[in-house]
Amino acid sequence: MAFSLNPARWWPGRGRRTPPIAEEVWRRVREDLPLLAGLDRDETHRLGDLALGFLRHKTIELPHPLDLGQEDRLAIALQACLPILNLGLDWYRDWYALILYPDEFVPAREWVDENGLVWLSREPMSGEAWEQGPVILSWADVQAGGVRDGYNVILHEMAHKLDMLTGPPNGHPPLHAGMSDARWASALGMAFADLRRRLERDEETTLDPYATESPGEFFAVCCEAFFEIPHGLMADYPAVYDQLRDFFRQDPARRLAPVRC
Q1: 10-residue block means of pLDDT along the chain (261 residues)?
Q2: Which H, E and C letters describe the chain, residue by residue?
């Protein structure tokens, strides 16, 4: 199907004209993204509409030469919009740029230790989200997210953006009416502690060990697993899966076939 967008639907005055996307382009991109499998016709159409809105109101900036075609841009937008399929584009408000580097990038950061000494950190990164600022991604890592293995840098950074709606990322985005802050904190907190214990015992885990860096990273890694390997997350941490299902208003385990990680 070809998607068209009503220019008045998303934040009038900020948009740019977006050329229509032909059915064959949409089909190729969708087939190359296995995490979209199982979406029904209505969900597919709504996701396409959101993706066009995303491309219309977010700029994709390329600091270095990069051959990025229409299909590439659509693939980025579809993955970015999957978490907000049943939430709406307003959940990505207050930021307007996605910066794409060819490969890992190395931001320079200063930090002060407990003794007052200033240190400069230069750590390679595959993705980064700034509070009320841009999302920065490595194109090489975006391309590596084409399989359902629990690693998807786009989903990860979009999760941070949702988390940042309540301030610095702490693993607790704004919850819907009827959801319990206490149950959310309990489910994710207990799973976070359990994952740390399992890694200390050198046990294999479904979740990437990077999840233990902080509660914010734990939430982001869980979101990757929720959309890519939902059966694994549900098996290890069913309470976390239930909370994410209620938050995203989606149930990927019902539409996706299990995969072996």
Answers
A1: 33 50 88 95 95 95 90 96 98 94 66 53 73 92 90 97 96 98 98 98 95 97 98 98 98 94 57
A2: CCECCCCCCCCCCCCCCCCCECHHHHHHHHHCCHHHCCCCHHHHHHHHHHHHHHHHHCEEECCCCCCCCHHHHHHHHHHHHHHHCCCCHHHHCCCCEEEEECCCECCEEEEECCCCCEEEEECCECEEECCCCCEEEEHHHHHHCCCCCCCCHHHHHHHHHHHHHHCCCCCCCCCCCCCCHHHHHHHHHHHHHHHHHHHHCCCCCCCCHHHHHCHHHHHHHHHHHHHHCHHHHHHHCHHHHHHHHHHHCCCHHHHCCCCCC
Q: What is the pTM of this model?
A: 0.86
